[in-house]
Each structure stands twice: as C-alpha cells, then as structure tokens.
Amino acid sequence: MSGGGLTTQRRTQGGGLLVAGTTSDAGKSVVTAGICRWLVRQGVKVAPFKGQNMSLNSYVTREGAEIGRAQAMQAQAARVEPTALMNPVLLKPGGDRSSQVVLMGRPVGEMSARGYHGGRQRDLLEPVLDCLQRLRDTHDAVICEGAGSPAEINLRRTDIVNMGVARAARLPVLVVGDIDRGGVFAQFFGTTALLAPEDQELVAGYLVNKFRGDVTLLEPGLDMLLGLTGRRTYGVLPYAHGLGIDEEDGLRLSLRGAVRESVSAPPHGEDLLRVAVCAVPLMSNFTDVDALAAEPGVLVRFVDRPEELADADLVVVPGTRGTVKALAWLRERGLADALARRAAEGRPVLGICGGFQLLGERIEDEVESRAGLVDGLGLLPVRVRFAREKTLARPSGTALGEPVEGYEIHHGVAEVLGGEPFLDGCRVGAVWGTHWHGSLESDAFRRAFLRRVAEQSGRRFTPAPDTAFGTLREEQLDRLGDLIEEHADTGALWKLIENGPPAGLPFVPPGAP
SUPFAM superfamilies, per this entry (predicted)? Predict the structure, then answer.
C-alpha cells in the first residue's frame, strides 16, 4: 500500500512508534493525533494507543467501553472507530490518593496510588501488550502515546505506558518537549540520561513543540544536542493557538485566563451570549462546553465565585467524579445560593451528569462518597441513588424538536418525579438537567437549546445557521496533520515507524559531559 511517498508492506505486524514527553502537557496527545492524521492522509491504516491513561475526560465507544477522550479524538484523527483496545487501562481520580480503575472499558474497583503502583499495575502489562499486539496485527502502524515522563525513575519498575511498553514491544521512542516552558534542551538531555541503557537504546530522538520565533536561532542548539546525545531532532513544531482539543486532565484547568475565554466569531444576532461553567472539584468531561464555545457570539468561561455568575446568560454545572464533594463545594463558595437565585428569577441553568444530579432534591450515595443520604440543591424534582454498576451508554433521541446523540458515564440513577422531559432528565422553568454528555455537539439541537436560553435570558442572540461542530473538529485535526507534514521530517519518522529503533545509538551517562 502506498500514498504520498510512503510505502507499506504487509508484515506479520504493523509498524509502531511511542510518543513520549519530557513532562505532562508537553504535547504528546496532539502530536500523536497529528501523526495519525498525517499517516491516514498518506493511505496508511493507522490506530492510536495508550496503555494507561489517567483522566476524568472520558468517552464511551460503540461497544459500550469507557476510554480516555484523548484516544477517541486520536481515533477520529486516524479515521477509525475508537475501541477499548486503544486505551486498555483508564484511571479516574476520585481524590488525591485514589482512583477508579477501568480495565478494557469497565470499572474493576477503586485503588490507592500506593496499592496500584505497589502491585496491581505489574499485573496489567500483559493485557496492555496484548491489546497493542492486536492493533498491530490489523493496522499498518500504531502510534502509541506515553504518559507523564518516561524518566519517572521511581515508577519504572511497574511502568505499563512508557518505556515498559516500548521495551517489551521494541518500539522506537520520540520524545516531545514543550519549548514554550523553557529549558527544553535540559529536558531532552536529562530525560535521556536518566534512562537505563536498555531504554536509551529505544530513544530515537526528539521533537520540539510550541516554538515561537526564528527556527534558525534554535538550530545551533539542536546540533549541540545531537553531539551530546547522538540523537537527532525530528522536527520543530511552531506554536499554534487553539489546538488543545480534548485535553486529558480537567484538574489543571486555569479558572481565569487560559480556557475558551475568547469568542470564536462575532455574534450572528445583536448580542453576545455569556456562558459560565462552574469549575467544580474533580470536574469531568469539561469538553461538553466546547461546542458552545465554537458558536459565533458565545463566550465561555470557567468560574469559581458567585459574583461571576451575575452577568452569565447560562450557567453550566458540569460533570464531576465527586458529586457530593462538588455539592459541598458549591455551598461553601456561595455558588449554591447564586444558582437558587437564578432559578427563582427564571435565568437558565444546565446541569450535566453529576451537575444534573446535584440539582435534584436528594442524593443517596453509598458508592462514590459513601456519604449516605444528602440533600441536593432542590432545583429539579429528581432523586438520585448511586448504584455500584456504572451506566455506560450511547443514547440518541429527539429533544426540542431536533435529533440529538450523546453518551452516558455515571453511577447515579435518577428518578425523575416531575417537570418537562428533557433527554433522560427534565426541565423546570429555566433549569435543565441531563446525564447525556456530548449532546451539545448535535448541531440542530444545540441551536434550538441556545435559542431557548436567549429567550429566557432576554438576549437578542441568534445561533449561526451553519455552525457544524463535526466539521470544525475535522479542521482542527487537519491542522494537526499539517503541523507534522510541514514541520517534521516525515520521511525519517516513517522509517522509525516501519523499521524500529535505529541501531547503534550511544549511551548517555547521567551528568555527562
């Protein structure tokens, strides 16, 4: 098979590459997606893979498996259907020291970080490698994403996502560094030097991400890095705004300043529509509001103070891995009272998943928080009981006269006692609630919902008639592919993917030279 100068031969297994990073947020997810999009445009059958992901931003595949949303995005970049094989282990933090472990798309229990890294993680390497092998058996190439840094030497013994996978599968490793943070040469050198000789053999080279300025000024440093490590740099990707799609970790969101604070385009009507998203603890699937932010004239911001709700035309209470904890947080911050005032005044509020649950009358939780019976905010006639079995579904239907699709990820089972039906939840006045994530990505439904919000808030806002969220997402993924195609040595990258780690890479001793 060939395309765009690349030639693949049917082998017993497909080629592979592990995209590692010097730090978290170095750009591994978007680089992996970009390589996938570049390859599929060349006619290569490619799949993404991440052995272990820690994220509260997840997705439900068509077979009903829960995986990291970043891997679902990468699958879209590769133009393949996402499956549990692409993310066999997902850790969903429930606090600072424990996480829910999701194995092959199904939760298998809660575990402390010490317990997981102390024993259970070692048992998961075999199923992780089996999933990788199954993908390599059916694809020309598999682009794997690492997690954090491969040089986390305290975790190397139990690693199932970075060098543990690379060594077991003999994958070449491309290390990505975020130069916008500063210190990228030290990061590249130090990452390499901290690895064992057997791991260093697999580190083929580096990729600089988020570079601003004249690349010729950087080139002497890249030559010096080659001299110090014996490893080349495979590309320098320029800084590009608006590419942080489907981030893994909502815990690192900046409440004021970094997230979706600008309007995508002037309003189609006369007024802007302002959306405030309550930045609840353990916020999950915060990408639910991306489709709102993509609408011309809609301003989305994350907030944590009641006064920030004052000028909002719509307040969104998003999903959370800790519904009872989020409920207490809203009360402590004064946001609960602000939401109650909005409801009494007929000003729009939308609760999604955990945000829907806490808007109800009461919550019975012996599963997530084990808090027992807790009073909700009482803004919707709903009672919630947490079940041990997690609901994972891909529902579809009609709401506000328009077709809509979504996905469900929750332990809470809602009993709706009244109000007007709304998806699987209800509406009372200007307060709306549903378990469905992703519903706002349905274009006609989103426009109908925004028209209702504009009416209830008294804004002269008209949704643009032609905003297609799926098309905008495809354009973003093409931009990622363009970055790789235009600013990386794609010929050399393909040789890595097809042939494996280069032979004769030198060992870099710690502290040298």
Answer: Class I glutamine amidotransferase-like (SSF52317), P-loop containing nucleoside triphosphate hydrolases (SSF52540)
Q: Which of the pair, 208 or 271, is modelled with greater confidence?
A: 208
CA distances 419 to 71, 362, 381, 424, 425, Å, are 37, 16, 7, 12, 9
Put the strands of the sheet holding 203-211 in their side by side order: 46-49, 141-145, 15-21, 173-178, 203-211, 232-238
Q: Domain 266-463 falls in which CATH fold?
A: Rossmann fold (3.40.50)
Using pLDDT thresholds of 50, 70 and 90, give the confidence band for residue 513.
low
Asked if 318 and 277 touch (Cβ cutoff 8 Å), the reply is: yes
Q: Find the largest Cα–Cα distance for the chain.
A: 72
Residues annotated as part of the active site: 353, 437
Q: Exposed (0-12), middle (13-18) or buried (19+): which is 479, by Cβ within 10 Å?
A: middle
Strands (E), 150-244: 173-178, 203-211, 232-238
Q: Give the C-alpha separation, 473 to 175, whole Å.
A: 26
Q: pTM of the predicted model, to two decimals?
A: 0.92
Q: How far is CA 475 from the centre of its chain?
A: 18
Q: What is the pLDDT of residues 315-337, one digit of tens each?
A: 999 999 999 999 999 999 999 99
| Cα distances (angstroms) measured from residue 78 to each of 96, 102, 144, 251, 483 | 34, 24, 12, 27, 15
For 94, the token pair is 């429930």
> What phi and psi values does residue 439 have, to the nearest 5 degrees?
-65, -30
From 3.30.360.10, 3.40.50.300, 3.40.50.150, 3.30.70.1150, which CATH number describes the 16-244+475-499 domain? 3.40.50.300
Q: Are 53 and 71 in contact (CB under 8 A)?
A: yes
